[in-house]
Task: structure prediction
Amino acid sequence: MSSDQTTSDLAGAASLPRAVLWDMDGTLLDSEKHWDVAVRDLSRWLGGEMSEQTRLATVGASSAGALRVIFDSLGLAHEPEALAAAKEWMYSRVETLFADGLEWRPGAREALTMVREAGLSTALVTNTERRLTETALDVMGRHFFDASVCGDEVPAGKPAPDPYLRGAQLLGLDPRDCVAVEDSPTGTAAATAAGCAVLVVPGGVIDVPTGPGRLFRDSLVGLTSADLAAVQGCIRT
Ligand SMILES: [Mg+2]
Result:
């Protein structure tokens, strides 16, 4: 090795992740507020006001998971037809709200651009189903993502590791070489279970527990490739 500079450069390059796996709702898009309105309206439609405890249990959940929580909170049986009708109602409500205006989380668009310019692979890894994700992809720009995984395309949604395992697989990578970016405890648990290092950018609705392989940041504003290297590094130490 000829100089310290070379050594340091190699060390830096070695610690960059191969890919970034992006959560969507609450991480890239300020869409948790739309889900908040939709699940509360759904609860009312099904027969009762939603408690804060129930609301928190639905944050970052798959739609099937959220529906189970809401049905349980209202004492409703998990009848397949009733669940299907509730899901349709909720998705229609969210579609309307998305159409009225989807907004980026602070720094999200710039962070996506930075990751692209750094030459890293990317996948969108969301619990939201394909139907709504397609609308969101149109808004965000499909060029930001090499692949996308939706909640209805894996055996189990977050907090199960399946969506992140599938995201890494679609990119041909080991999840341990990928950094996930998440805002919720549910999504962070999924990424950790898949073996990804996680950059946690809390949305403020509910706290994400600290733990090994997790680094926290207040927002995506000013995110650099060095920051991503630091996240990747925290899973190897
Ligand atoms: Mg989220």
